[in-house]
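Why does residue order matter? Because the sequence determines the fold. Keep that principle in mind as you read this record.
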Amino acid sequence: MKMRVHRCWLAGAAAMLSACAAAPTRFYTLVPPAPATQTQATTAATLQIEVLPVEIPLQVDRPQMVVREGGGRIVPVETRQWIAPLATEIRSALSADLTHELGADDVYGIAAAPKLPTYRIALKVQRFDSALGAYARVDALWSIRDSDNGRVTCASTVSEPVPPGYAELAAGHQRAIAAIAAAIAGSIRDARQDHASLACPDKN
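Structure:
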């Protein structure tokens, strides 16, 4: 009897190990690949940005991808996780997109160059929805404050259609964050070109 129990335990353990080996954890990022060429040299930058830490909803503040299913059900997927905390991933992606769009340096956490105008950017994500094979949606409020204490607060809602697959879902969220970054960058560019106060873009 003891030998049979031992064999059953070994069989069960082997099955569990086999199941674990068949479902490895995969990691994803929201940070886009670095561009092959820089559009503007760092030494030629005429402004700098400071991207503050991002606020996200508690429902998605976890390592796992949280996928929306029918009937209001959301499921954390244990084998599909973000490579860093989601708020950090969003901030890093936003920073990368903005530095590329504006040809600026992100000086958050370091000493800013005193002679360059600085734009402080805050982002509060209100919804971060992931529907596998359907859409990646980000609703957010964002604000910009310039060196003269001018400030604007705007809202963006971006929904990107995505094909089936978790990599495709992550790519959809990359595009959504890039669209928000483009709206923020457009607001800064318009204010600088027109020598005007910061304003929300007409379409965001």
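The chain has a mean pLDDT of 88.
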